[in-house]
What we know:
This protein is α/β, with parallel strands linked by helices. The protein is 57% helix and 19% strand. It is elongated.
Amino acid sequence: MLRSLHIENYVLIDSLDVEFPGSLCIITGQTGAGKSILLGALGLLGGGKGDASLISAGKDTCVVEGEFATPDDSLREMLEDAGVEWNPDGSLLIRRVLYSTGRSRCFVNDSPVNVGVLSECAAALVDIHSQHNNLLLSDRRWQLSVLDYFAGNTELRSKCEAAWKRLQGLKNRRREVSERLDRLREDRDYNQARFDALDSAKLVPGEMEALEAEHGTLSHAEDVRTALEGTLAAFDGEPGVDGALREAGRLLEKLSAWMPEAADLAERVRSSRIELEDVRETVEAAAEKVDVSGGRLEAVEERMGLLYELFRRFGCGTVDELIALREDYSRRLFDSTALEDELAAIDKEMAAATKEYDALAASLTAARSKAAPGFANAILERLRSLELDRAAFTAEVLPAEDGPAGRDSVLFSFSASGKNVQDVARCASGGEMSRIMLSLKAEMARFAGMPTMIFDEIDTGVSGSAADAMGSMICSMGADMQVLAITHLPQVAAKGNAHFVVEKKGEVSGIRRVEGRERVMEIARLLSGSVITPEAIANAESLL
Length: 544
């Protein structure tokens, strides 16, 4: 329930603080006094659109703050997930601040939250019926939700919505994968051909550099062979490098007996001899490898020609770039196979999700069809208590396209005379619309667990004893929940435990509670207009 409301700098409201009891609260006031402004401020707490135009002239900020008492901890998990600390007594302090810059901020229990969290809180705490909500009678989705409340389908409907959401997510995922797969399939032959061309080349990192070096050697094979053979001749001739070094080493070792440093020189000669021997063996091996026949040169040039052709064809400059491109084509070909596997897995999940959704939708259809006659009778009973004695009302469950609420729609039909029932949105007068909406809201209040309901002139188009009957119904709702009823009808205003009057003094609107004689005079004003007569006062006392 709404315990208290604080409004500051909202349109014509300078500063307002009011506390509401937990029963039926009547709100009256002159036309233009600011009742709709008060309702608009409450709408901000429900996540309604707010902008700088709502801030009082000359002010920088506007604040609307409401303190609520929650009937249970159903909001606790959602708020804690949003970082809001839960009060042990279940109280919630909801605040909305508008800034002249156009920004707004939302708070729950002094913790900042987004508008979505604010809306979810308000939806569980307050139901506001404005003067335009009779249009809901043409909204099949709203009618279906009313029937679901009556049928106790809240949990079943939530499961159906979750199953629908999961199914739609899988459908979207399948569409994305399928589109990617189609694109890959279109390019598959092209990718395969290019991969095969690169793969068959047996590319080796750094290969071109090695080939270019070998090609330089093979191109001058005769000169290389001659130079290598001459080098070997220098090593192997008489007396030969090795023989000369051996003799030098022997003489230095002999000399070391008289010249100690000669021993070191002899060791250095021996090391040089070993190193030169290794050089000789390398030169000899190189000479044996030199191919002067031209066969190897032809093979190298053919390999280099292949690589140059691949460079040109694929727009690359090195073998390493060709290898990277080959791996990319390989990945694309693998992705196609992986996506086919993923698509098969999604189809399997979709089959299970569809089966689950079908079962939940069928259960909802059965529950709605079973509850519809009882619901229609309950509404009809209320309508007859509102002086529509001959009225007829039906609720028909009809097939509809699959959706989050199942595959049903509902048609409310009405006839004031009891004959030729038709769609309620097309055949009811303004006063009948008001009584039908009140009856529907009263049934919702029984099953929706809504702690606070606000009616903004739901009695429009009704007068006399019918208005009194509507007041009695609203009053009976106030016995089990908090009801705030904005009205112009004295028959309704005389009901309830608390009466508040919205007044406009100069250009500033305010609200105050009236009791005793003041309440009598306010109801008398509703009865007689600007001049309050003794008869109106007597009538007001009688109504009270």
